[in-house]
Every structure is written in C-alpha cells, then in structure tokens.
Amino acid sequence: MVKPNIIVLISYYKMIKGANVDEPLLSLKNVNKNYGGVIALKDVDFEIMHGEIHGLVGENGSGKSTLIKIISGVVQPNPGSTIEINGLPFTSHKEIEAIDKGVMVIYQDLSLFPNLTVAENIALEQIISDHKKIISASELNQISKQAMEQININLPLDDLVNHLSVADQQLVAICRALTRNVKLIIMDEPTASLTSREVDSLFSLITDMKNKGITTLFVSHKLNEVFTIADRITVLRDGGVVGVYETTDVNEEEITMLMTGKKISYEKFIYPPATSQPILDCKNLSRKDQFDSISFQLFPGEILGITGLLGSGRTELALTLFGINQPTSGEIIFDGIPMEKMSIQKAMHKGIGYVPEDRLRQGLVIDHSFENNLIITTMEKLVNNLSFLDRGKIFKMVKYWAEGLSIKAPGGDSPVRTLSGGNQQKVVLAKWLAIRPKVLILDGPTIGIDVAAKQSIHETIKKLARDGIAIILISDEIPEVFSTCNRILVMHKGKIVREFYTEQIDQEEIRRFVYESNNNKEMIHEKDS
Amino acid sequence: MKRILDRHEIYVLIAIIVFSSLFSIINPRFLSLENFFDLLKGYSLMGIFTLGMLIVIVSGGIDLSFTAIATICGYVNALLLISYGEELNLFIIFLIAAGIGAALGMVNAVIIHKFDIAPIISTIATSNIFFGLLMFISGGKWLQGFPLWFEDFAKIKMQTLYSPEGTPYGLSIVSVIFLMLLVITALILKYTTLGRSIYAMGGDKISAKRAGINVFGIHVFVYSFMGLVAGIGGVVQLLLVNASAPNSLVGKELDVIAAVVIGGANLAGGVGTILGTLLGVILIAIMGNGLTLMRVPSIYINIIIGFLILISIGASTYRRKKTKRQRIITENN
Q: Fewer Cβ in 10 A, N or C end of chain A?
C-alpha cells in the first residue's frame, strides 16, 4: 500500500483534477422534502461529476442526512423533484433502484454484521441480489477476493468482523460496495472513529478508486479533511444549497462562514499563571500495557491538551486519573495530597470530573430526560428534609445550567436523545460542572459535533478555565487542541513524547510532529496480514 | 489450534467427555450401546424442539409458545387418529401437524414483525392464547386408543440388537426423525442464502434491511419453522407416550432454551450452531441420565443444570472479553 503524505496527496489531486468531469454522474433538480410541516430540503440543485471527489458540508440540521437518504432511496422526496443517475431518471426512489444504478452509501455505523466473517460480509449482499439460494464457501471467498483485489488489500477472509479494527471494518464495507458494481460511493462521516494514520490510508484509497472511475461523495464535519480530499465542495445551510466551490478557490474559514452564516474566529487561549501550586501532579504514572512513566503537572485555570493516536494511551490515562483503573506504579498528587488507592467515588469527592469519549453510551442515559441526566451526579444535595428529591431545587438547578451553558432543549423533561449533539455534550458538561470540580477531564468533547456548536463548547471550556478550573482536553483534532489549550502533550505508544506551549509555535509544527511520529508506525492491517 | 480453542463447542465436548468417563467409571452400564440408544430416544423430542429454537435465537428472537403449538398439533392429530385412524397414514399425520404448527408460527411472526412487539412478550401472549383455547376446547382430557399401525410405527427400530439380559434394543424411529430434521436444519443454516440471512439479521437488523434482506420474510420463516418442528414434535410426543396429554409439554420451554444456550447460542442473536446445540442436548442428556444412574435425586439434577448454564454463558462472555482486551493491547503496540 502507498505510504501517503498529505502534501504529496494534495498536489496529486490538483494534478488530476479536471479530467473527465464534464458529464454529471448524479444530478438533482428542484428537490424538496418536508417532514410534516418541517422543511428539510428546499429547491436543492446538486450535481456530482463523473470521477470527482465531492465534499458535502453543513451544520447539523442543514439537510445533509436527508439529502444522502434521498439519493440512496431511503427517503422519498416531494413530488416534482427530479433526480438523474448516469443520465437515467431515478423514479422509484427505492434503495434497490439506487443500488442497481450504482449508488452505495457507507454509513457511519458501517452497517456490517459483526457476527459474520469478512467474506460473508463482503459477498452476502451480492448473493442476495442475484437471488441465489445456495451458498458455497468458495463462492463467498471468490467474490470477496475479487473485491479486495480491486483496491489492493488483503484481509483474513475467515475472521469475524467484530475482531477487526474500525479501519479494517470500513475496508470491508468498501469492498462490499465494490461487489455491487458501484459508481458513486457516499461516505457519511467516514473518519469519525479513525486515527489520523488510518485517515491517510483511507484517503489514498479514495484517490485510488477515483482513478478506477469510482466517484466519492465525502460527507464530513472535519473541514480540514474535506479540504484535503475533495475536488469540489457543496455547502448546505438550512436545507438549501449555499453554493458549490472548487476546493482551490476557498479556505476553511470561508466555508465555515458559509455553513454557519456568521464569522467564527479562532483565538488562542491565553493562560495567565495564577499559582505555582499544581492541582494535579502525576509522577511516573504507569499502567501495564497502557501507558508508561507519565509525569506532568496541571495548574488551576490551565487547559492542557493531550493528543495522540487512538491507542496511544491517552484515554487509558484519563480513566486512571478518574479512578476507573488503578495505576500499576507511580503517584497521583491532588492538591498537594498523595492519593492512595483511587476510585471513582474518591475522584468525584475530591473534585475530578470526567466527560467520556463516547457520550451516548458512557456519558448520558440517552432515553432519560435532560433533567434526570443533569442531577445524577449531585442527587444527594437536591433533597429536602425528608430525603426526598426536591422538585424546586431541581428546577432551579436545571434552569441555572440551561442558561449558564445556553443549552437548547424543549424542556427539562425532554429525553436527551432528542437534543442535538452539541446540546447533548453540554448536558454532560453541566452534569460534571454541578459537582463544582477542580479538575475536569474532557475526552473527545466535540466528536461528531458541528462547527458552530463546537465553537460554543470551546468557548464554554475557556470560560471554565478562566473561572479557575483546571482542564485536561483529550482530542486527536490538532486544530481543536491548538486553539483551545495553552499547553499540549503529545502521547505515542503510552509515553509523553513532546510538550508544546501553543503561544510559542504554530499549528503546522504540531501537525508535522504528530504525523512524523505516526509515520514510524506500521499500518495496522499490514501488520495483521 | 488457536482457532479450535476459540470455539465454544470444543468446551462442551470436553465437558461431555469428562462427565461420560466419570459416569462410566462409576457405573459401567452408562457407556453401553443400549443406554446410548435409550438416551437418544428419550431426548429426541427435546432435540427436535432445539432445532427450531436455535434458528429463532440466531435470528435474534425467542419463542415461548412452541410447547403450546406442539400440544395443539398433538391434540388435533390424536382426535383425527381416534376418529379416522384406519383411513389415515403417517405422512398425512405429519403433514397436518407441520401445517398447523407452521400456521401458528406465522401468527407469531406477523405479530412480532408488524406490531413490532418484543418476541418474548408476543410469544408469552400467544402461548397463553393457544394453550388457553386448547384447554377450553379439550377440557384438559387425555386422549388414548390410537390405531394399531400408529402404535406399531412407534416401536420401529432401525436394527434390533439384544442386551446380555436378552432385552431387544436399537436405534428408534423417533431418533431417526430427529436426526433427519437435524441434517435439514444444518443444511439450511450452513449452505443457503436464507441461513446466512438469518445470522445476518440476528447480528444487526438494520444492516440486514440495508443489505436488501427481506426481514419480514425471515421472521415468517423463522417462526414458521419453529412452529413446524413443534408440530412434528407434537406427533413424536404421541408416538412416545401413546396418548395426548394437553399439560405434559407446556412449562418445559426453558429446558429447550437452556440446551441451545449451553450449546453456545447467544440470546442477543447472530451466534449459534447446530453442532453446539446437539452437544448442548447431549450434555444435558448425559447429566440427567448419568446422575439418575447414580441415584442422584432429580432436584439436584436441576441445580447442576443451572450451574451448567451459568458456567457455559460465563465462559463465552469471558472469552469475548479476553479477545477484546487482546485487541486493545495489539493496537497499543
């Protein structure tokens, strides 16, 4: 597999751009969609050319997912909308016709069967659509091998898919699409759970497919990635197309402005040192197979970024600081006092809060109300004299945090499932802020959240730091740690390999450093095979 | 080698070998061919039910109404045998039983799919309805006095051998019915698109829909198949006891589910094999039989089977956790 390099990739795209793009592969004219009284899409005209890599961006609620669903036949547009695929009208608006015409979606959840083998996952769909009744292992293997050969990969055919890494699972999903004679692959947030190294190899794969004539619609929140991979970018806002731009003609800031309709500027976080007494002091902290000799100090009012690959030990470190796991050796000193035997209860009692990576599963009870999620950390303080929960106190608290963090929810009793990603994350934040923490650990706080909501969360984080809370921000998005933190630790293979002060350097320097340390690493599926 | 040790079946097999050796040391009669055929006959009915249950569990569902379906099919055929016994033959009897069973199973499928009610709830409800109606109509009466040809059929053995004491024994026709159904079920699961689609749906229903699998069709097949084998089981029950007793099966659902689970099927769906299920039935059978031969009271047998289920599920969960942990470690390096 090609060892990709961002700079080389960009020039490569620019070189081949313009070839064979005079004929639209997909064309939408006057597409409208209402859900009851809610307008999801209005008068959308949208074109994808043969062989291009097209980026689709927009905030949550801008109509991106509705658009994908209409193209792939999951949702029917209003009458009067016309869609043509490869010059032919897409009339039935059913999934099966879209697939027959060569349109495949790779959903964020990949839609694989975790309990089946690689070969079964790749070939089953093909076999079903051929109306074959009998399956033989050799046929499964043959279909899968053919698909894998097309993109020069080699995954173990008999392995169960849930034993593969997310990146390899994604390759399985792509191979499955290739078995269906695909012309347009729609990738919905394909990089959400990939490490930056894996993103690189995905990008070289997309380019590779482009050379074979397969067009990609790349839908993502991560603008820097859209800029790296896409030839053209379509921006959606409030259900309408704002415009279509050649990637070379615009920059991230302009696209952000087009998406949100307002100017968002990134300011560095300035940390005025307030005290020389660290609130948290880790000395040679190690945990077997996870991280090794971690030493750092954290001061009140500081935002400390920790970045590194998935599996670099950053999340594992956070789990240990919060008392979920025990360190095998080393010392955690909190506010001058060495902490013997950590536990979650102790961490919370001391004032350490932890916002987990996967907010939907670990941070929230998704079907419960905003209110119930919010009070869960502080319930014992919200009771009346009889030890019953006090409605008045709860109401006051919900109001306080909803206003303080500007959480937009229809009411305290609406399930958090119905809130947007950004507001959900604010509920998790509020829940931990309610314990009045001295240290707040945020693990990937803006994963899957759109630009404007992200900005608002970053502002909240900075405000908290100015109020004196010490914050650890774990993220693999370098722009995020760069613009939010005053100090950044880079972790690699369980060790801190570098410390940066954001005042002294620019973003490119960090990015280069992280990429270089990544490039020394073998690619995961190369190692497996 | 590592791949073999990854499989649940191997551990059930080891347990079977260990316990069989233990029982045959204590009581040499245990390992005789005669005891083996007796055991096989005694557990064929349970085995038949586990085949349907396996498919239902693999699809991500569960069916608690199959004993009621089996009882209805048995009762209807008992009535027919008593009234029109001489004009009927076995083929028709099985056809009627399979037909009624499949139709009742389809009722389950429609309720589960169209109304999107959890299978456990739907089938508890239909079980009560089916069984309640039967008790209302039959008044709970036993039916006896089947035609001679029917009774004779039940006694057919594939070959007749004689024990040292001179009692005849052999592979019973009932066991043959079970083994035939076993082969058919195995073929469906392993070599047909339908079979893989059942696994796929059990693994992820939404993905299955997106892959173009007819989810309603799979529901109909799975529950109808369960009903069909339950119907055949109902007739087998008539063959075994030569009578129809409306209350003899209902309440035994959990034993069947236990056998399937011990065999490695995951109640969350998507995982389970015919081999494992067969081994699960064998393990339960030899535990019951071996302990009985050792004169252990039946109450203790229940307790031991309870522990078997716990160990079985615990072991597979533990192994899953271990592979997951290993993956995190490899990604670290």
A: C
